[in-house]
Design a protein that fits this description.
Layout: H1 9-22, E1 27-33, H2 37-48, E2 52-58, H3 62-66, H4 76-83, E3 87-91
Parallel strand pairs: 1-2, 2-3
Helix pairs in contact: 1-2, 2-4
Length: 97
């Protein structure tokens, strides 16, 4: 671990990522808010074990982002997600329940 991982997220990720590797997966998909700590931790841990992280970030701006009228920017957890090479998708909060 390191500063990119923290709290109770690490223990759960250890088990989930070990299972993904045992099943022969090459990628991990997770969903969270636009500046999700869970997504950041999942992205970092996935890369640490050789898996490709795919993150679905919920944001009210998703429609504008899809239309090219807005973007997620390059700050906070989104910056870190991009730095570790995550593929980032967006959806509106209403698209996922």
């Amino acid at each position: 671990g390191g500063v990119e991982l923290g709290g109770n997220k690490v223990r759960k990720l250890e088990f989930l990522l070990a299972d993904a590797l045992a099943r022969g997966c090459d990628s991990v998909v997770t969903i969270g808010g636009e500046q999700s700590n869970h997504c950041r931790a999942t992205a970092a841990a996935s890369r640490m074990v050789g898996l490709s992280p795919h993150l679905i970030l919920r944001t009210r701006r998703a429609d504008a982002i899809h239309e090219g009228k807005d973007d997620l920017g390059w700050t906070g957890n989104v910056l870190f997600d991009r730095m570790v090479g995550s593929t980032v998708y967006t959806c509106t909060p209403g698209e996922v329940s």
